[in-house]
Specification:
Blueprint lengths: L9 H8 L18 E6 L5 E6 L9 E7 L4 E7 L3 E7 L2 E6 L9 E6 L7 E7 L11 E6 L5 E6 L3 E6 L8 E7 L6 E5 L4 E5 L11 E4 L3 E2 L6 E3 L12 H11 L3 E6 H6 L5 E2 L12 E3 L22 E4 L3 E6 L6 E6 L12 E7 L12 H4 E7 L12 E9 L2 E10 L1 H4 L4 E8 L6 E6 L9 E3 L4 E6 L4 E8 L3 E4 L9
Parallel strand pairs: 12-19
Antiparallel strand pairs: 1-2, 2-3, 3-4, 5-6, 6-7, 7-8, 9-10, 10-11, 11-12, 13-14, 14-18, 15-21, 16-17, 18-20, 22-23, 23-24, 24-25, 26-27, 27-28, 28-29, 30-31, 31-32, 32-33
Length: about 500
């Protein structure tokens, strides 16, 4: 879905043959909606920001469209086409953009939204800047209010750390890592000054979880058995060939803890991580495995239960969101295309930080660092043919902690089984849940934003529209608010 091709009309071909060169022209996007790829809401809940990517090449540019909580278009700021993500913290908004063609650049924009109705571009970074070495597709960013640093991740594993300055025009951005696998799910722990980053299958969505035995430790050089379990799947280190390929195979099942505070003291140097080194000793990489529980408290797999030396290694996370009250908690949307290894995926997972994640001597194992708990995706809540969690929100709506989940099974990865759903659920111990579903591309839901009043905007990527929804916890989730049920 992220690749589009322009067509050349017969008239243009004839003109070229006649020797008269003429470039194609397209209208400006104005305040229209075209291939919305991301939506965010400001901290007042009064303004929604829609990133229009115009993947179909209908217009000459993309836009950042501002919509108020009455459903009215307020203003539209021209941007490059092929926008990827937007994130807001306080008066700052970060937007990322793919390359439009071979002659254009990847871009990262920083906007000042002090005037909520009129975003102002204050800083722009592009891949034309050799000092950034930004030859990658930005896929996501994370920024927190009242914190000086933000992060941008790229397809393929590059990570950039930004430092906000006053004035914002002096803000800096540096390439700090290459983890060699895309990591879209980002959580910024400002108390510990650590960035958590989880692997994502951006394109095919076919990467599977792995159920594997971990009974032994093998010497990296000789291959001799030296100890008991060490978190590494035995079939990844029991032979010389497996050990040689371990870094490449391991990183999709490892999460990152990038130590912002420590790296700042050294000036944010660039380091290549997890390629030609033994990943079992690298302090920033941690094997990701967990077993979740059902409603009745029983584990959903036998990994680590009946067989203590078996682990369920996890991969493919789309979004991370902070807990609105507890700084030690965040949430992940864990995805899995229906298969044997993924039958315990497709959940929203509550993650609790247990320890100092920057401790390296001795290096803590995954079970000492994080605790995992399913809050959505129990048997009976999910239909594997319909549900595939992506973007989500957790907010206090009408004094009830509410989860909103966007399921998006796109036509590129799921062909004839494409479907789109927005589900709502209360997290206060009640059993209330509702959802709205569609199999029509014209009513597709892709990326969502919700304010504290339960007003939601969902981007219809294929439908070139944003769709207003309203969640009333304990009662209903319904279509439409303001003056419209659809904004085009």
């Amino acid at each position: 879905m992220f690749k589009t091709w322009r067509t050349i009309s017969l008239t243009a071909i004839v003109i070229c043959i006649l020797g008269c060169k003429r470039e194609e022209t397209f209208p400006d996007i104005g305040n229209n909606v075209s291939s919305p790829t991301d939506i965010a809401v400001d901290n007042t809940g009064e303004y929604f920001y829609v990133l229009n990517a115009d993947f179909d090449r209908t217009y000459n540019n993309g836009s950042l469209l501002v919509i108020n909580s009455s459903g009215e278009k307020v203003t539209a700021i021209e941007t490059p086409r092929l926008g990827r993500s937007i994130n807001i913290a306080g008066n700052d908004l970060i937007a990322t953009f793919d390359k439009q063609d071979d002659e254009s650049e990847f871009e990262i924009h920083l906007y000042d939204i002090t005037d909520r109705q009129a975003p102002s571009l204050v800083k722009r970074w592009t891949s034309a800047d050799d000092s950034l070495d930004m030859e990658c597709i930005p896929v996501n960013s994370v920024i927190k209010e009242n914190y000086d640093h933000f992060a941008v991740s790229c397809s393929g594993g590059r990570l950039y750390i930004g430092t906000l300055k006053t004035p914002r025009t002096d803000t800096e951005l540096k390439l700090v890592r290459n983890y060699f696998v895309s990591r879209r799910a980002l959580h910024l722990d400002v108390n510990r000054e650590v960035l958590f980053a989880f692997s994502t299958d951006i394109v095919t969505q076919e990467t599977e979880d792995k159920l594997a035995d971990d009974q032994k430790t093998f010497d990296w050089e000789t291959g001799e058995e030296t100890d008991g379990p060490n978190e590494v799947p035995d079939d990844y280190e029991s032979t010389k060939f497996a050990r040689h390929n371990l870094p490449k195979n391991a990183r999709r099942y490892q999460y990152v803890t990038y130590p912002i505070g420590q790296e700042r003291e050294e000036g944010f140097p660039y380091r290549s991580i997890g390629n030609d080194i033994n990943p079992t000793t690298e302090p920033e990489l941690h094997w990701l495995y967990f077993t979740l529980k059902n409603y009745d408290g029983t584990p959903d797999t036998d990994a680590g239960v009946t067989n203590l030396n078996q682990k369920h290694y996890r991969t493919n996370f789309w979004t991370a969101e902070p807990d609105p009250f507890d700084p030690n908690v965040f949430y992940l949307s864990h995805r899995g295309k229906n298969s044997k290894n993924n039958r315990f995926a497709n959940s929203i997972v509550k993650v609790t930080i247990l320890n100092d994640v920057t401790q390296t001597d001795p290096k803590l194992i995954n079970s000492q660092l994080l605790n995992f708990e399913r809050i959505y995706g129990f048997s009976g809540e999910l239909n594997t043919e319909q549900h595939f969690p992506g973007d989500f929100e957790i907010k206090l709506v009408n004094n009830r902690l509410t989860l909103l989940v966007n399921h998006f099974k796109d036509r590129a990865s799921f062909r004839n089984s494409a479907s789109y759903t927005v589900s709502a659920k209360t997290l206060d111990g009640s059993l209330w849940s509702q959802e709205i579903s569609s199999t029509s591309p014209g009513n597709s839901y892709f990326q969502i934003a919700m304010n504290q009043d339960g007003k939601v905007l969902a981007g219809s990527f294929y439908g070139n529209a944003v769709i207003p929804l309203e969640v009333e916890p304990g009662a209903d989730i319904k279509l439409g608010w303001g003056n419209s049920q659809r904004i085009e």
